[in-house]
Amino acid sequence: MKKNLITENDILRLYHRGLRRLEVKANDILTPAAKDKIKALGITLKIIESDYPHNYGSPDIKALDGNSNFTVVIGSDHTGFEIKKELSEYLRAKGFDVIDVGTFSKESCDYPDFADAVAQRVARREAPFGIIIDATGIPSAIVANKTPGIRAATCYNEFSARSAREHNNANIIALGARSLGIETIKSTVDVFFNTEFAGGRHQRRLDKLTAIERRLSKNKTNEL
Q1: How far apart are CA 74 and CA 148, in angstroms?
Q2: Which one of 23, 68, 71, 186 is separated from 89 by 20 to 30 angstroms, measured CA to CA?
Q3: In the chain, where does the domain assigned CATH 3.40.1400.10 lie?
Q4: Which of these CATH numbers, 3.40.1400.10, 1.10.12.10, 3.20.20.70, 3.40.720.10, describes 71-194?
């Protein structure tokens, strides 16, 4: 069966032509950005001739050892609270054990508290991976990367998530609640957890990063 790729631009073009209801075949592929645009524009989506699960087109999340039931730590500030709730439910449905370190309301709070809480848990090996969410993902990544052994990457699509894991062996993914839609966030997280570290020349570069961390830590100790 032929697969049709439906993108965000396709949705926008059809919407401006008066589209308010979209029917797609089970074999068609909606990009995450297209799914987000459908939600944002209030378009009714119907899947026809479907023998597939409703989340077709999205890769199943697998741990790097092939076991989908592993622990992930998640935290956010108030801007990421709603995204954190939905993403946590999504991950639990996939078989993940999710440790939520807050925040637990929409009340204004400070992102360093929650980014650091996630980083410390991952650094202590309480979980192999962490997720941190704020408006853009950038400030929380800066905070998390202050902790030795943490490699937090702000990811904004599947390509950046794949590169963060494959090249940088990132152990925390930082996401922007006001930069990305929930479907894009889900697919980005899927790819992050599905991608293995490539090693080789990338390991050599990470070894240099570790050496820098150790040198700075030693210098700080000598100053004391």
Answers
A1: 19
A2: 23
A3: 71-194
A4: 3.40.1400.10
Query: Is pLDDT larger for residue 61 or for residue 80?
Result: 80
Evaluate if residue 119 carries a pLDDT over 70. Answer: yes
CA–CA gap between residue 24 and residue 22 (Å, rounded): 7
> pLDDT by residue (tens digit) across 63-91?
333 444 478 999 999 999 999 999 999 99
Please state, rounded to an integer, the average pLDDT across all residues of the chain: 86
How many of the other CB atoms lie within 10 Å of CB of 124? Answer: 10
Task: Select from 192, 131, 136 the least CA-distant residue to 164.
Answer: 192
Average pLDDT over residues 52-69: 37
Would you please indicate which residues are annotated as catalytic (active-site) residues? Answer: 167
State the pTM of this model.
Answer: 0.74
Q: How many C-alpha atoms does 17 have within 13 Å on its Cβ side?
A: 9
For residues 61 and 189, what is the distance between their CA atoms, to the nearest angstrom? 8
Q: What is the distance between the alpha carbons of residues 187 and 197, in angstroms, rounded to a whole number?
A: 18
